[in-house]
């Protein structure tokens, strides 16, 4: 797996889950995007008693990902400082100090997965965090021997507030399942309650006491309808939503939230996640073999999660999942629920037990999801065909131009580009290739370099500088003449072309191998790596490298200027506008002189199109009439 350049979406949607879900809020050697994710085995977090929800995060597993228990993330004062120091040491360049007010807002956001604990308008915790924010920030950055007193003060407030919320929840439970009387609710009403989404998506407007009482009524009503079979989940709802922790234990929860708030404010593209939520900082869809999931889209309910889309058989869209592998989902954060959805050993592996509620079924169902069996075969398995890239052929003069659309930069992009070029070679009238990188937010550096190998085999590509000033130079892989492409080439870019996509466009332009056309790109010239944190409590994504183009031109906060400019829709998002973004870096010129060459486009005489996208036709018309492209 390649060093991953986190896409722009990581910054601008940092408070949302990475999957298309109904989100309710926003020492080891460096690991790349995989961080051993190929080992899709899940283990249960080592918590002796689930009531001890404030226990320290577990140690990294040698076997793979942690199976969440639903416990809130927690860190000791020493562990939190260790992680902060690790980020500061590995960050590619120094940055300005954090703003205490923004830091406090981030703590409040990460501290509250439900809109109950700190974000609710009636929660006494919010004003306390804002008042103690500067002291909490200073304590995280201070000497090891100093206590984290601010976290303890906030923890004491949380412990008291949780008792208030639990009392409201218990009152709602009694209302939802009145003693001595049968419930007077139709099956349709019960099902609406069971599948309802009680947590707000966006700003929190409901009082915590009101929401706690409603949650109690929903859980109590479900218990009255389904009977004693729901008792374990009713109990779990109370324990998860309103943990009975000491003030000291809540202080550790505050410190974990503080670290999650601190890292992205120090590093615009960085993040820390505890082990049972670590997939929240990866973009799994860019992996060559992404893991199998029990669902792809979900909404949290009072008792678990409702599958909105992508249910894996025998699960169905619309099912309410109560537990996976014996662990209740009620009260889990969005990130924990998504990690629970991963299939162990996917795409092949042991079955996963799942407990669900289903419409028109009067009791919970126990299902088993069985991944595909490994097919029996003699000899090694043939390599899987890479997913195909969108491909179109547009008339150009007496021939056609291949339009290859690249929406992101996955690890196997080299194979995908190779397959597209094989189609080009198979067609006798293909005159040129245009790579459409508009709105491509990036992905894997390995994927970018593998793709460039088909156009610049063996070329020295990107100087990359670390914090200590050391510079390493990446090279494109050597690709055989049969697999490479030496004809006319162009890259269409816009203001949303970022990160690893800028690498592809920038290298092609820097070597004059093709024409970059469109609008100035986003300007993300930094790379992130994944590290196991030195506290052994979670995983970090840290910006460890700044890169320049092969000719030394900076990308960070600058972007790539096309050789031919088109008037394209304006974008307001730019790396230069991102708070705490690193400054530009100009590197050395590492180009191989023998590979700097121009391959001109033939004139088209006005014979272009039609095109599915008029911008593509505009680009082709400009390429076939411009001196820059046709000289």
Automatic annotation (TrEMBL):
Pfam families, sorted: Peptidase_S41
Transmembrane segments: none
Keyword list, A-Z: Signal
Highest rank taxon of the organism: Bacteria
Segments forming domain Tail specific protease: 362-567
Cited SUPFAM superfamilies: ClpP/crotonase, PDZ domain-like
InterPro entries the record matches: ClpP/crotonase-like_dom_sf, PDZ_sf, Tail-specific_protease
Signal sequence, start to end: 1-22
Protein name according to UniProt: S41 family peptidase
Species, as recorded: Polyangium sorediatum
Lineage: Bacteria, Pseudomonadati, Myxococcota, Polyangia, Polyangiales
């Amino acid at each position: 797996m390649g060093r991953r350049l986190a896409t722009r979406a990581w910054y601008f949607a940092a408070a949302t889950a990475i999957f298309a879900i109904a989100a309710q809020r926003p020492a080891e050697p460096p690991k790349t995007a995989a961080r051993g994710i190929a080992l899709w085995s899940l283990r249960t977090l080592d918590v002796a008693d689930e009531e001890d929800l404030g226990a320290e995060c577990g140690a990294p597993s040698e076997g793979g990902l942690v199976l969440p228990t639903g416990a809130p993330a927690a860190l000791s004062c020493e562990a939190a400082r260790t992680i902060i120091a690790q980020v500061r040491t590995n960050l590619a360049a120094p940055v300005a100090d954090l703003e205490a007010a923004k830091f406090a807002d981030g703590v409040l956001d990460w501290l509250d997965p439900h809109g109950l604990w700190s974000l609710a308008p009636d929660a006494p915790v919010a004003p306390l965090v804002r008042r103690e924010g500067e002291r909490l920030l200073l304590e995280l950055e201070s000497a090891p021997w100093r206590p984290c007193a601010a976290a303890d003060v906030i923890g004491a407030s949380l412990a008291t507030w949780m008792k208030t919320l639990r009392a409201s929840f218990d009152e709602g439970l009694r209302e939802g399942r009145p003693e001595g009387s049968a419930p007077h609710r139709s099956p349709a009403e019960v099902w609406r309650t069971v599948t309802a989404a009680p947590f707000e998506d966006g700003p929190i407007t409901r009082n915590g006491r009101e929401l706690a009482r409603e949650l109690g009524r929903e859980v109590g009503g479900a218990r009255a309808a389904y009977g004693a079979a729901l008792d374990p989940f009713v109990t779990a709802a109370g324990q998860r939503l309103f943990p009975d922790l000491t003030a000291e234990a809540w202080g550790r929860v505050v410190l974990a939230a503080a670290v999650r708030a601190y890292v992205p404010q120090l590093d615009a593209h960085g993040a820390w996640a505890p082990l049972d939520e670590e997939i929240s900082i990866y973009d799994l869809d860019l992996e060559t073999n992404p893991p199998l999931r029990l669902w792809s889209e979900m909404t949290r309910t009072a008792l678990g999660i409702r599958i909105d889309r992508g249910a894996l058989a025998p699960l169905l869209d619309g099912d309410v999942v109560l537990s996976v592998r014996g662990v209740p989902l009620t009260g889990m954060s969005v990130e924990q629920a998504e990690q629970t959805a991963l299939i162990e050993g996917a795409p092949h592996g042991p079955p996963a037990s799942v407990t669900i509620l289903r419409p028109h079924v009067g009791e919970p169902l126990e299902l088993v999801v069985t991944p595909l069996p490994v097919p029996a075969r003699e000899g090694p398995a043939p390599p899987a065909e890479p997913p195909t890239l969108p491909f179109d052929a547009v008339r150009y003069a007496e021939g056609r131009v291949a339009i290859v659309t690249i929406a992101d930069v996955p690890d196997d992009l080299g194979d995908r580009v190779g397959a597209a070029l094989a189609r080009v070679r198979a067609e006798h009238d293909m005159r040129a290739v245009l790579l459409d990188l508009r709105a491509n937010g990036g992905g894997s550096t390995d994927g970018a370099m593998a793709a460039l190998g088909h156009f610049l085999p063996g070329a020295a590509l990107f100087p990359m500088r670390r914090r200590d000033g050391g510079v390493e130079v990446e090279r494109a892989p050597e690709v055989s003449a049969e697999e490479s492409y030496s004809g006319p080439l162009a890259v269409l870019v816009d203001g949303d072309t970022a990160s690893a996509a800028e690498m592809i466009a920038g290298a092609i332009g820097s070597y004059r191998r093709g024409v970059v056309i469109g609008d100035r790109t986003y300007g993300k010239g930094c790379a992130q790596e994944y590290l196991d944190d030195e506290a052994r409590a979670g995983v970090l994504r840290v910006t460890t490298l700044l890169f320049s183009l092969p000719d030394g031109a900076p990308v960070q906060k600058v972007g790539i200027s096309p050789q031919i400019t088109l008037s394209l829709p304006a974008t307001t998002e730019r790396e230069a506008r991102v708070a705490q973004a690193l400054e530009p870096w100009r590197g050395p010129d590492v180009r191989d002189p023998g590979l700097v060459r121009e391959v001109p486009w033939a004139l088209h005489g006005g014979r272009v199109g039609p095109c599915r996208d008029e911008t593509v036709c505009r680009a082709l018309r400009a390429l076939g009439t411009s001196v820059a492209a046709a000289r």
